[in-house]
TrEMBL record:
Predominant localisation class: periplasm
UniProt biased composition (Basic residues): 452-462
Metal-binding found in the keyword field: yes
Region annotation Disordered: where it falls in the sequence: 439-462
Protein keywords: Copper, Metal-binding, Oxidoreductase, Signal
Pfam families in the record: Cu-oxidase_2, Cu-oxidase_3
Location(s), subcellular: Periplasm
Domain of life: Bacteria
Signal peptide: 1-26
Biological source species: Pigmentiphaga aceris
Single GO molecular function: oxidoreductase activity
Protein name per UniProt: Multicopper oxidase domain-containing protein
Length: 462
């Protein structure tokens, strides 16, 4: 934790130092690269106006340098390797060593200059989704600018005019470049107290993503439109997604952006939240109502807020059940209710790795150590204090703890449930259901005395 903080402090100092030392020689800020998949602690601004930093789930914030009152960033578009879960690496395209790219945090009214260097094998551009800016800075290749050729650096410059939750992505060969993971988060903090923006104790952000990676392969299929098999948050899949660790009583904000091909209903357990902002800006308080699930449609951002007042390990996930699963083949037949007994040994003579699965549902998959292809993630995985979680993909845990120190984002471990507060097994007698006891008590030849049940019929009563 502290070493990572030092990394950022160090890299900021390095950037600033280089800026001084090489000011006459180079106008381009030194690019900062990060390859760790850990959630970096908040980057506390060392220069520029102060703000409350966000925490990017399994990501980081891009350091900048101040130059004559302008905040300068350097994004490098390049091929990267992202570890989506332990043992599962995917070839992607991203920015500054990672996919998604680093989060950019600025303050309302900041003059921002972003250098974008293209190290991809094809041209690119960057669109600043949701921003008010001069048309020629909007990043639509061919429409508002020439594409950034391979090996070249383009400069974007505008004022961050309104506070809010935004993102960036290419507007060049979009289908391929976004399917390969090119996207990043952008937060513009308010410059002063804002009537529609509350002060929070924790502020998290992440992008939703979907990839089609054939089990055993390393590169997403870019032509896929609907049949994705890897569902992630910031290009990580559960249990590779860090938990959101907060202190009981904290006001928590979570910002979510969707650049996938489908919508994702994001669901929080144990708490009610309000949508306090979209990519259109903060929502006026009179337009808000309580929810426990909010749909984040394609190309949308949602900013939710709640008071974390219930201690525990609360699930936080996409409510589409297929999106909380890891990679699976699409040709898996539904086997519920099919009795395989005796069949497995027969099949295993021909197919030694054959496994019986799915005839009692698929929950057994959570604990099966099934032989997997070389580079993939199990379909359902992650283990909790009570056993396998049977979840993958877009799932993590909101950990609310009384003794979590303010500003401490470390994982506190599993929740210690107070005695008598966990669902438990009933071990008394099982009473015979009343209707069955009535039926079994009646001799067969006395069937006329059974309760009369008349099925609804179209002949009667019409
Ligand atoms: Cu989803």
């Amino acid at each position: 934790m502290s070493s990572r903080r030092q990394f950022f402090a160090g890299s900021l100092a390095t950037v600033a130092g280089l800026a001084v030392a090489r000011a006459a020689m180079a106008a381009l800020p030194e690019p900062v690269t990060q390859t760790s998949v850990d959630t970096a602690p908040p980057l506390v601004p060392a220069t520029g106006r102060p703000y409350q930093s966000v925490v990017t789930l399994n990501g980081w914030t891009l350091p900048w340098r101040m130059r004559n009152g302008v905040k300068e960033f350097h994004l490098v578009a390049e091929p990267v390797v992202r570890e989506m879960a332990p043992g599962f690496k995917v070839n992607m395209w991203g920015y500054n060593g990672q996919s998604p790219g680093p989060t950019i945090e600025v303050v309302e009214g900041d003059r921002v200059r972003i250098f974008v260097t293209n190290k991809l094998p094809e041209h690119t551009s960057v669109h600043w989704h949701g921003q008010r800016l001069p048309n020629g800075m909007d990043g639509v290749g061919g429409l508002t600018q020439a594409q950034i050729p391979v090996g070249k650096t383009y400069v974007y410059e505008f004022e961050a005019r309104r506070p809010g939750t935004f993102m960036y992505h290419p507007h060049a060969d979009e289908m391929v470049q976004m399917a390969m993971g090119m996207m990043g988060f952008w937060v513009t903090h308010p410059k002063q107290a804002h009537p529609h923006i509350s002060t929070v104790d924790r502020d998290f952000c992440f992008l939703l993503n979907a990839f089609d990676v054939e089990p055993g392969s390393y590169t997403p299929k870019v032509n896929t439109m609907t049949d994705f098999n890897v569902w992630g948050w910031n290009s990580r899949i559960f249990p590779g997604i860090d938990s959101l660790n907060v202190r009981q009583g904290d006001r928590v904000r979570i910002r979510v952006g969707n650049l996938t091909m489908t919508n994702h209903p994001i669901h929080v357990h144990g708490h009610e939240f309000q949508v306090t902002g979209t990519d259109g800006g903060p929502t006026p308080p009179g337009t808000r109502w309580y929810e426990v699930t909010t749909d984040v449609a394609v190309g949308q951002m949602r900013q939710i807020e709640f008071l974390a007042d219930e201690p525990g390990d609360w699930a936080l996930h996409c409510h589409k059940s297929h999106h909380t699963m890891g990679a699976m083949g699409h040709a898996v037949p539904t086997m519920i209710g099919v009795d395989h007994r005796g069949l497995v040994q027969q099949i295993q003579k021909v197919v030694p790795d054959y496994m019986l699965m799915g005839e009692r549902g698929m929950a057994d998959m959570g604990e099966m150590a099934m032989p997997l292809p070389e580079n993939t993630a199990p379909m359902m995985t992650g283990t909790g204090p009570f056993g396998p979680l049977e979840m993958g993909g877009m799932f993590t845990v909101l950990k609310v703890r009384k003794d979590q120190a303010p500003g401490d984002y470390r994982d506190p471990g599993w929740f210690q449930h107070p005695a008598g507060t966990v669902a438990y097994e009933y071990v008394g007698d099982a009473p015979v259901p009343a209707i069955d006891s009535a039926r079994t008590a009646v001799p067969v030849d006395d069937a006329d005395s059974l309760p009369k049940v008349r099925k609804p019929s179209h002949r009667n009563g019409h």
